[in-house]
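OP here, attaching both records as promised.
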Amino acid sequence: MEEIHKRVLAETLIYLKEKIKPQCVLDYLFVKDILKADEMERLKKKKSIAAAVDQLVRVVLPRSGPDAFSCFLEALNDTKQSFASEHLLDKEKQIRQKIIEGKEFNTLLCPCP
């Protein structure tokens, strides 16, 4: 996952915890091989929806490969939660604009070795 997508997820965590329903999203991510069976089961067993979303966004997705963010957006759209994917894309656009305007350091778009 790109650094900018990790930042988008971090900056929208509270919104996601309050707004999305992860059950169907988890199934979609499992089918797309973003989640392993044991990860999915652990997330489904969380005591609250907020705890499941927190674990998914902060821990699982950032470690799930380069397609994790786009699959997460697809999962939100396919589970009638496109309002959340639109929110994430808006946040990404805001961050990219700040970088272009020089208000942010450019390591998110072009990381140096």
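Record two, same layout:
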Amino acid sequence: MTKYIFPPQNTLTPALLKRSEEGLISWSFVLLCFVLFVIILSFCIGYSSFAQDYIVGEGDVLKITVYDQDDLTTTARISGDGAIVLPLIGQVEVKGLTLTQISKKISALLADGYVVNPHVSIFIQEFRSKKAFIMGEVTKPGLYVLPGHTTFLSLLSEAGGLTKDTGDKAIIKRKSNPSNKNETILTIDLKKLIEKGDTSLDIPIMDSDSIYITKAGVFYITGEVRKPDAYKYEEGTTVIKAVTMGGGFSDKASKGRVKIIRKVNGKEEVLEKVKMDEPVLPDDVIVIPESFF
């Protein structure tokens, strides 16, 4: 007969157990630090990429350094004419340029008889030129300065958050270029972003964006329900859900004769004897008649 030999239960002494626990805690701490490092690094890389693509404007303050040329390091605010003044080369027009483009332009000017193979670095010390307008169902609608990398949620927070009558969409009108009138329309699903946490919808806000937070539609329920009133429309609302929101049928309700008054192309239509699973639309009036018996 085969004999199975099991190790005694006290093989691990208390001291060894303690060391094992300490080792596990140490590795957990190292892993946590690594995860935090990756998150911070990803943010920094993303921010750096955004900064290089940032188009400067009036009021922005730039810090400009030239490698191995400390006397050329300077801080300059962009004037109303879209220019900065630098040592040696004087006034440089930077309006409508990104940091990368400005760096290349300054490098070319310095290389023209001033510095051999200059390496120019530019950092935005103060953001002042970018603004966006937010209106609709927010607590504090208005014009806001964009302090650097501003996302939709951070601007929404700055505007005091959403009102109780907010709909399920935010519409952003974005100019393809500040100098022309061509616009791109972006739509953000607020339910996916805020309730479901889909952060891919938390997009960066750009200069001159106009953001409109839609108002929720309403429907009306009247007649033989316990709480006839106007109610906030939600996608997927059916007649039975609307009745439930209205407190349920009264004792006198005729459940088989429910009708909906609906506007179609500006004209009112009456849907008779609708089913309980009939979808409700914004501005519908659900009428619950009284039973004859």
